[in-house]
What does this fold into?
Amino acid sequence: MQRLTPIAAAFALALSGAAAADTQDNAVLREEIRALQQRLEALEQTSASTQPAVPASATGPASGFNPSVALVLSGTYANLSQDPQTYRLQGFLPSGDEVGPGSRSFSLGESELTLSANADHWFKGTLTLAATAENEVEVEEAKLETLALPGGSNLVAGRFLSGIGYLNAEHSHSWQFVDLPLLYQAFYGGQYKNDGVQLRWLAPTSLYLELAAELGNGAAYPGSESSQNGAGSAAGFIRLGDDIGHDLSWQTHLWYQQSKVAQRTYTDVNSADVEVDNSFSGRSRSWGVAAVGKWRPFGDSLRQLKVQGEWLRRSESGEMQYDNAAAVSGPLSGAYDSRQSGWYLQASYRWQRNWQASLRYDQLDSGTQHIGLVEDGKLSHDDFSMLSAYRPTRSTLAIDYLPSEFSRVRLQYSRDDSQPQRIDQQWFLNYTLSLGAHGAHGF
Amino acid sequence: MRTLSKRLLALAAAVLSPAAAALNIFACEPEWAALATELAGPQASVTSATTAQQDVHHLEARPSLIARLRGADLLICTGLELESGWLPLLLQRAANPRVLPGQPGHVEAGLWVPRLDVPQRLDRRDGDVHAAGNPHIQLDPRNIQRVAEGLTQRLSQIDPANAARYQARLQDFSQRWQAAQQRWQQQAQPLRGVAVVTHHKDMSYLLNWLGMSSVGTLEPKPGVEPSGAHLQALLGQLKQTPARLVLRTPFQSERPSVWLAEKARLTPLQLPFTVGGAEQAQDLFGLFEVTLQRLLAGLK
It folds into this structure.
């Protein structure tokens, strides 16, 4: 800038010489130059007078570029009145291993390690590894997020927790209960995560309005592994939210998800009490709505009332193959389609910094299922005993003690009625610790 | 029917149109919102993420904040990890490259002031300590002046067309601020050397400015709720090192300070802590006026 001033002045002088004939123009020019010079001087003054009193932290060693590290440890003691090996949601196609109350007695929860840092001025990278009690390491999330896309948009790529559903993208250590609502367990096999891309756009409005679309390989339940090119799953969501006064906030959520399904296999028990492997191929579609409200009577988020509910409907249509392995009388195949739904409502109140109580009610409806092989008389309903209609319900109460922001001890009781004549009384005592980098508080 | 549709249209326009002001400023705390209003003038639209009744440590990246930060030209926060529980997520969700760290539109006020209480070691056993030092910098008027100068530079950088105006406003503000500081320092003479107990370690800069001293906090450790055992120990300690006042903010519970005040014969005081924390503390000048008035009244 200091170099610019003389150049500008010389240029102005040359100009003024050339334009000497027209004195009026000359005067105007001079006036403009004077104004420009004043602005330059003002700018120079500001930059000279505002050297920080204490220099911003000096450049550190190279380790300053290391990713930030956050670690979550958790463990549970469970007392279950029914054998968890026999747990299933009656009336629903089984959705994988992450369904049910877990194992009895002491068990280690997932230990989560998150590393994240900005790669450069364009991308931020995050890796979350989960070490399971079975001594396996899973890649929970491994994603890049853009930092500088224009127009309020954000791109995420890699493996990430999908933005469908209110709870889906929340990590387990910030849940209000030890386990997920039944609708996530039944329809998404736990949290739905994908290898793919997500594009989000935040509208430039005073009301919070966000739109997003996702494409993925579709390998995660309700989809299945496939060897095809292109996307195996797609999803989209809209979120809307705002405040009412200083103490109330709300958010609503609408989403759609679909997956191609190829040979999704499960084990059923047929009318002769023999285990048979069946599989479903076709298309799975679900859509749902969620609403959350929070009331902070004391101003801070440490003491608040939170009410949330979600409702979801899924339809699957395609082909059901009975007895893939030809062990009994198969393989046989016929049409299959289903329309099923579920919802939950929960409230949690943290009336003191250290104490929180939460209450939840879950319900699923096995809805209507048309099994071609049964309808044309080749097989009977009893050959698909897991799919016979039922309405699983569960009621849950949890009390948390939180010594600080970084630790929590939880006592939880559930009365789980997810199969006929099998009420499961579930007790859990659980701890969660957060170490290292400060976890962020989403809404 | 027609009026209804007209009303709906008007409503939609009100909801959907972004704020039309020249410069949108998003402040994390009310004191920086007040300072930005002083320096950027009525042309700018300034909003604060928190009110004086809220504890800024504990906030969530809620929808309304995401929407507000989306359209901001400048973000001003204390920094020094004060907002580390929610600001990083808010910045990620708001998808606004103008206010990301490193940009001229990202202001961390705490970096411009000399810091107190920089911890010797970092261990969460010591409570919610901040590695870069105590972040509650706003109750020393000298810090306000430093931040005012830094902020003016940033305003000129992102809005060069109005640089001269920002400079003029800074000069005007600085003059009034210097005069007020002289007045306050005179008024505050009787406070020199007075010992106090504070709820959280959030008055250090105020005490340092006024030459007062703190003999303890109601919280056993930063961010940990006052416990009966700790208050008893504090009561015993006050017999050795007496204090005269117990200070708290509008968002801290009055029970522990009233209990201690009664037992140890101290005067409990609620200070505004930031702009909006008391009826007369509607701007930065009012904030310091009320703070001094209450402290002086507490000595009587």
